[in-house]
């Protein structure tokens, strides 16, 4: 029997609730991924199966993702609408989906089932890969007259909790069975066998259905169990897990049966609000967790929540000041909502992401537990850096001669500090072959580095204060850090500059130099370096040991009063490095 059908699967289209975003703001990063891990198709399907790859948010700038298909043989077992087994898909800005199609090849050859592995790699632009980047695609052979495909007739069904009638779960074979055999089915889901339902004639959640030669159908029955509990609808998931010789698991191996609740409550119900945060940064201080009530309360109520997760109650956070679980709070008569407060501890410990799990477990008085959102998980995001991961080195050897290389490409900031001479005279990056130091050995040459030079030309008009600062990008690390900077001077007789090396945990990146924000690591002058044996243009590797409690910046400051005696100066710097000890 030839099977013809059109099936479009939405794989990976994820919806996030409770966050406000501007769809025209493309500054976020979108995650691309599949939402399921496997799919099955018969080789004689005449219309290609459209596979959608979802993006988790709309406010991204677009990009692309590579798709590669392994297993099977392209053009023999399948083709794609992209014309190849490996291709790149573009994702438009603000788009939630991109797609491609796979068309199995109906070859009239008796062969084994083909297993394809579809992998997402190399997300670019405003996209990154999500967790689910692998999809298993099974192509079922339909040419073996000795084998029939077994599938559920429908992938969903429902039964009322109060129903006194059994319902049949039907299976179909694509051809008459050529021999007797068995179909093994396993039940799972949040409905509990023996509590919420029974499987007629079965005692366990894994059972077999016998078939005889010539059969084209099979079935089993289930019966719901009625109770008086007000609860959410529950699902039973039946999966064909094994078939005997002469049978093959078909395209609908899973069916979900929903047991529809029929009970009601007299009081309003309470659920967690859909808009609650799913992440809290450690430095946030606190977060309010809200609850929805189905109707205003008509009498005082008490609500109990269980508190669990990998975050430690009493160490990482508390709930309304309490460090005990379970926690009970009051909801007064007439209330239309409720809330609790998570107070977050901002410690200095470097930690993995930790979870806080809040579960509604009891409501009494004027409230009853709802059936919508009875549990939420909140991720607690650490804001402390692991100094063990800090190994920053800037050699400036990537200098491309562009005017803004230092600031735009490398992220350094040039600041004036009351400078009265030429206001564009900054420490800046230059190329001068062989005039700088090698990162491995400061006595060996390199070609690019930092330079500042000023000469009044013995003209009093050019006298004044030379005072500017160069600040690194933010360096992410805490604890014991070693900072190295190579420095060399020229024109010792007229070079009276003081070089000050700083670090700061409080500088806010504003572009203004406030000396109170900076701690001095060390100072240097041409005279001092000469006394130590470092002559003109000879690099000395400065080394400073600091201890930080937060991410930090490093700065180099040059300050010299330019006058008729001290009329010129030049300093060069190279190989700025910060490494955790």
From TrEMBL:
**Which one GO biological process term can you cite for this protein?**
cellular response to calcium ion
Supply the SUPFAM superfamilies for this chain. CalX-like (SSF141072)
Against PROSITE patterns, the record matches this protein to: PROKAR_LIPOPROTEIN
What Gene Ontology cellular component terms go with this record? Answer: cytoplasm; membrane
Q: Which InterPro entries match?
A: ADGRV1 (IPR026919), CalX-like_sf (IPR038081)
Top-level division of the source organism's lineage: Bacteria
Report the GO molecular function annotations.
adenylate cyclase inhibitor activity; G protein-coupled receptor activity; G-protein alpha-subunit binding
PANTHER family documented for this protein: ADHESION G-PROTEIN COUPLED RECEPTOR V1
User: What protein name is recorded for this chain?
Assistant: Calx-beta domain-containing protein
Ranked from the top, the taxonomy reads: Bacteria, Pseudomonadati, Bacteroidota, Flavobacteriia, Flavobacteriales
């Amino acid at each position: 029997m030839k099977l013809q059908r059109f099936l479009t699967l939405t794989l990976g289209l994820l919806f996030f609730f409770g966050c406000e975003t501007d769809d025209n703001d493309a500054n976020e990063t979108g995650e691309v991924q599949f939402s399921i891990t496997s799919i099955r198709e018969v080789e004689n399907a005449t219309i290609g199966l459209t596979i959608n790859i979802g993006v988790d948010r709309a406010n991204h700038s677009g990009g692309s993702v590579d798709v590669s298909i392994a297993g099977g043989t392209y053009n023999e077992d399948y083709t794609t609408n992209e014309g190849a087994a490996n291709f790149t898909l573009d994702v438009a800005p603000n788009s939630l989906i991109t797609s491609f199609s796979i068309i199995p090849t109906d070859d009239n050859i008796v062969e084994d089932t083909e297993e394809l592995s579809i992998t997402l790699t190399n997300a670019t632009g405003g996209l990154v890969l999500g967790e689910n980047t692998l999809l298993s695609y099974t192509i079922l052979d339909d040419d073996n007259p000795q084998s029939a495909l077994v599938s559920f007739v429908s992938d969903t069904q429902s039964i009322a909790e109060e129903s006194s009638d059994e319902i049949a779960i039907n299976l179909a074979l694509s051809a008459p069975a050529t021999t007797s055999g068995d179909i093994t089915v396993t039940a799972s889901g949040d409905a509990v066998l023996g509590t919420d339902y029974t499987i007629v004639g079965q005692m366990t959640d894994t059972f077999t259905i016998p078939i005889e030669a010539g059969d084209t159908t099979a079935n089993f029955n289930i019966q719901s169990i009625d109770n008086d509990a007000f609860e959410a609808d529950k699902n039973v998931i039946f999966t064909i897990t094994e078939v005997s010789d002469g049978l093959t698991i078909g395209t609908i191996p899973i069916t979900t049966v929903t047991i529809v609740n029929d009970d009601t409550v007299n009081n309003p119900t309470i659920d967690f609000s859909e808009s609650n945060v799913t992440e809290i940064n450690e430095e946030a201080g606190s977060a309010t967790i809200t609850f929805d009530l189905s109707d205003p309360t008509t009498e005082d109520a008490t609500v109990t929540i269980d508190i669990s997760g990998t975050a430690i109650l009493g160490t990482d956070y508390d709930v309304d000041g309490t460090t005990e679980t379970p926690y009970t709070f009051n909801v007064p008569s007439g209330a239309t909502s409720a809330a609790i407060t998570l107070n977050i501890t901002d410690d200095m410990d470097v930690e993995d992401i930790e979870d806080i799990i809040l579960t509604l477990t009891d409501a009494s008085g004027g409230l009853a537990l709802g059936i919508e959102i009875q549990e939420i998980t909140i991720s607690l995001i650490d804001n402390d850096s692991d100094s063990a991961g800090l190994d920053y080195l800037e050699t400036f050897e990537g200098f491309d001669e562009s005017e803004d290389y230092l600031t735009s490409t490398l992220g350094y900031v040039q600041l004036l500090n009351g400078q009265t001479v030429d206001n564009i005279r900054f420490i800046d990056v230059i190329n001068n072959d062989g005039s700088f130091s090698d990162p491995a050995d400061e006595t060996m040459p390199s070609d690019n580095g930092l330079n500042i030079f000023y000469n009044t030309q013995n003209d009093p008009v050019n006298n004044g204060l030379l005072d500017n600062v160069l600040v690194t990008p933010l360096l992410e690390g805490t604890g014991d850090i070693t900072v190295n900077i190579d420095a060399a001077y020229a024109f010792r007789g007229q070079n009276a500059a003081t070089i000050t090396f700083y670090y700061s945990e409080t500088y806010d990146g504003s572009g203004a130099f406030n000396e109170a924000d900076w701690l001095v690591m060390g100072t240097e002058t041409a005279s001092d370096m000469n006394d130590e044996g470092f002559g003109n243009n000879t690099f000395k590797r400065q080394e400073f040991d600091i201890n930080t409690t937060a991410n930090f910046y490093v700065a180099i400051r040059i300050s010299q009063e330019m006058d008729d005696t001290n009329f010129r100066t030049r300093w060069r710097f190279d190989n700025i490095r910060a490494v955790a000890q």
